[in-house]
Design brief:
alpha/beta, nucleotide-binding, binds adenosine-5'-triphosphate, binds magnesium ion, binds 6-O-phosphono-beta-D-fructofuranose, 474 residues, four-stranded parallel sheet, elongated
Amino acid sequence: MENSILQKVVKGDAGYVLEDVPHLTDYIPDLPTYPNPLRFNPAYSVVKQYFVNVDDTVAQKIVVHKDGPRGTHFRRAGPRQNVYFESSEVHACIVTCGGLCPGLNTVIREIVCGLYNMYGVSKILGIDGGYRGFYSKNTISLTPKSVNDIHKRGGTILGTSRGGHETSKIVDSIQDRGINQVYIIGGDGTQKGAAVIYEEIRRRGLKVAVAGIPKTIDNDIPVIDRSFGFDTAVEEAQRAINAAHVEAGSIENGIGFVKLMGRYSGFIAMHSTLASRDVDCCLIPESPFFLEGKGGLYEYIEKSLKENGHMVIVIAEGAGQDLLSESLQSQQDASGNKLLKDAGLWLSEKIKEHFSGPHKICVNLKYIDPTYMIRAIPGNASDNVYCTLLAQSAVHGAMAGYTGFTVGPVNGRHAYIPFNRINESQRQVVITDRMWARLLSSTNQPSFLSSKEVTEFEHQEQLLDGEIFEDNKF
Ligand SMILES: Nc1ncnc2c1ncn2[C@@H]1O[C@H](COP(=O)(O)OP(=O)(O)OP(=O)(O)O)[C@@H](O)[C@H]1O
Ligand SMILES: O=P(O)(O)OC[C@H]1O[C@](O)(CO)[C@@H](O)[C@@H]1O
Ligand SMILES: [Mg+2]
């Protein structure tokens, strides 16, 4: 076993690898255990095999070959027979960081209700306004009653922020308040912050479990099947695309132009396009494009307008940033994320300018920017169920003494994933994958790539060890 502070790798027969998560007993030996209170809970006691076998693991790769290695596995999430906290001893806190996402309130609600109803825990604090709230604000007391209706509202009742991650101040606050379970809901930046909080807690030898719940509307967190809120955002984006289609179709040479979120990953734009079928061109950060000349965007727009009289374009906010780079200043937000220029607005102006020039076609372009409208809403039904499972899996993991983990579904089964696996890369649309090919075939747009570039993309992806192909699921 290789055992560093963040990596706990167990190897077995036939190429089996378990990338395990830390446990409190890794650095605090002889911790007492207690029977899981769920054993005495009438709602759960009737379930056959309710408890997860301690050795259950979830395979990352489910398409395998006869002689191929069994590959990476993660510890299966779920309740254990024994727990490492007594109910009365638990003092939990919940924090939400980064941008908003549909379902945040559902996760908060279900952590509170899960702790209370399943484990009899009643000391639960909300941290106000993201990481900086640990050391600069009062806490909010959370009870099943106070969170009862919050899943019907968008946003986060706890507030959120970017920046302000000061590890030692945060861990001082955890220690001073006697908190022993920390639930951290947020995106890639937040999970990196959670990893360093875990490391500092471990360095101080504290009996504090740190559980991450991945949140990102962009769906850019690797390993997990998808992030919560993504489904809701794609659904809400349909309203903007429908409006763009109606507007474009009602006027000669109408162009409906919709900007959606997606800083580095175009999943929202790709899935919204595939779901809608009214989109003629989808532009995402992963797929470079150009405007002028043969095979360029202007040529495609001209052809579409000639053939159909109207068209719909969807652009992810991070697409085409290279084209406006000359005017880019390197500004950052409080968390250090690069601030993007508004590619949607820029491109819609360029299109209008181009067609009013020598290539004169009198285009009628309607620009629709619903970016914040698709994330400042409550989760839909399927996201709400998903958020419940995430929250409960996190609670079961912390109660069972696991720490330094992020929870999420891997091939449909919830698992505990070490922070380093979540934090080492960003998930992106693979443009040499079948899903992007489906999109190209549904819109009929050009790929904007020469065959030389396709070969280069394939080569880069082969170097990236197979995980990059995870989208090739369907
Ligand atoms: N490398 C890091 N180490 C420690 N803390 C970090 C790191 N990166 C970001 N953070 C902290 O995590 C919090 C959220 O980060 P960020 O604003 O990047 O959002 P995010 O979690 O990535 O979510 P999203 O991108 O979906 O909005 C901030 O408080 C930030 O200070
Ligand atoms: O304006 P804000 O709140 O910083 O958030 C914008 C960013 O947040 C995200 O929605 C990720 O959460 C990105 O798609 C977007 O670039
Ligand atoms: Mg982020």
